[in-house]
Amino acid sequence: MDTHRNDSETSYPEEGAEIWGSIERIETPEDYINSLRGRNLTVYFMGEKIFEPVDHPIIRPSVNAMAETFQIALDKPDLATAPSPYADTRVSRFLHIVESADDLVQKGRMQRELGQRTGTCFQRCVGMDALNALHSVTYDMDEAYKTDYHGRFLHFLGQVQTRNQVIGGAMTDAKGDRSKPPHQQADPDLYLHISDRNEDGVFVTGAKFHQTGCLNSHWLIVMPTIRLGEDDKDYAIVGAIPAHADGITYINGRQSCDTRAMEPGDIDAGNAQFAGQEAIIVFDNVFIPNHRIFMDGEFEFAATLVERFTTYHRCSYICKSGVGDVLIGATAEIADLNGVGNVSHIKDKLVEMTHLNETIRSSALASAHEAKPLASGAWMNDDMLANVCKQNVTRFPYEISRLAQDIAGGLMVTMPSEQDLENPETGPLLEKYLAGKDSATVKDRMKILRLIENMTLGRNAVNYLTESMHGAGSPQAQRIQIARGMDIEGKRKLARKIANTET
Ligand code: SF4
Ligand code: FE
Does residue 111 contact residue 65 with C-beta atoms inside 8 Å? Predict the structure, then answer.
């Protein structure tokens, strides 16, 4: 591990309260939630400007899910924190640079547990994987060009680790005409690019899509999303920007069934406490000072950055095995409440769901165990197995969901609302006719059915299903990587040798 913290010739400014806020170090979920308030973000949601997103009933469950990343650090410091050479304290694993295969295994175990705790996307992995990719890419750029990106990056990292802040990794551009590179787009802003510069830094304009947890982040790190050529130099920009910087507008995405969070009661929400979050971020001439720029024009390193980021992030999808545990549990629970918990085909379907779910976990942990060090000292998990993990994730949650819906039965989608259960006319009718096994209450049956609905076609299906399909690259992106690494020639040679063929 390259441990130099401030040994560069350059001295970097200590940034003040306008950037860091009044909370010196975020320790608890409450500290974290308070740190999000009063930032005056420009956020639009469902046609309206939202003044304090953290207190919006539809947004709050996503804040709660992110807050759980702070709770787990208190509950299980050995799992969720680690010593760092860049800070004087143990740091959140979400801000830690991995120093061994074991670090990556621990990371995966933590992510699975957070999936189990929340039943959704807890949003903090994108920043973790971006930091790790940047550790080695800034190092490699400095080696190639004698630039100072790595020193700048480590300075930034040390401050963020010390304050225990949340980093949002902003990679996916709007992309426009997918057949054209950035510089050939009819509108140059369809990929984020340098729109102006002065001696103190650069200004960037463009938009980033599908930005997981961005409203819940303190920092955004913008990064290119594809391989770039010489003509795309202005698009080769990486830098850290406070999430509340001037010129940023967030347009929060809506999710299936999200307005249930505005209704009285919490049964129909399915998972009232936790949800994911994705937004479009629009950057209109947003300033990045020199000391927070980690790539500026080195277009040939864009592909390396994207590849390293996706290698880390495709392994991070072990999170879905934790979410899958919740869905398998809900399925077993509803089978029991329905009185069919001991039926053999139900048990067999639960085995099938578990097999699929554990296959996701096994590929992620295998990728972590096979990690290797990079020149910067950071370790990176195995690329092939990370792609296999993510490819599994594009498929198995759908099959697990199909089996969950099979076992849950049609009532999951035809069931009346919580308000009907509370209504004096219809409530007693529902109590009578929604009865299941003797010991089961109608309310509990409804809660579990709504949870399965939430995860397979409601709010959290956004991240358990479609985000599993497209996050960290759509299925074909993994197949391209698998094709690159599969060494089909080597395998043919093995076959020819054993068969003793003549050509
Ligand atoms: Fe983390 Fe999973 Fe959410 Fe990605 S989808 S940010 S890996 S929890
Ligand atoms: Fe993701």
Answer: no
Q: State the residue range of the domain holding 474.
A: 314-499
In a domain, 211, yes or no: no
Number of domains, the chain: 1
Specify the ligand 1 atom closest to the Cα of 124: 6
Distance between CA atoms of residues 222 and 501, nearest Å:
53
CATH of the domain at 462: 1.20.140.10
Burial of 202 (0-12, 13-18, 19+ CB in 10 A): buried
Strands (E), 99-192: 167-170
pLDDT one-digit tens code per residue, 51-72: 999 999 999 999 999 999 999 9
Q: What is the pLDDT of residues 153-208, one digit of tens each?
A: 999 999 999 999 999 999 999 999 999 999 999 999 999 999 999 999 999 999 99
Q: How far is the CA of 469 from the centre of ligand 2 (A)?
A: 10
Q: Choose, from 135, 150, 291, 313, the residue flagged as catalytic.
A: 313
- In the residue annotation, 467 being an active-site residue is answered as yes
- Is residue 463, in this structure, part of any structural domain at all? yes
Model confidence pLDDT, tens digit, residues 297-319: 999 999 999 999 999 999 999 99
Catalytic: 162? no
Q: Which ligand is located closest to the Cα atom of residue 473?
A: 2
| 313 CA from centroid of ligand 1 (Å) | 8
In whole angstroms, what is the distance from residue 164 CA to residue 145 CA? 31
- Ligand 1 neighbour 467 (Cβ under 6 A): yes
Active site residue 212: yes
pTM over 0.90: yes
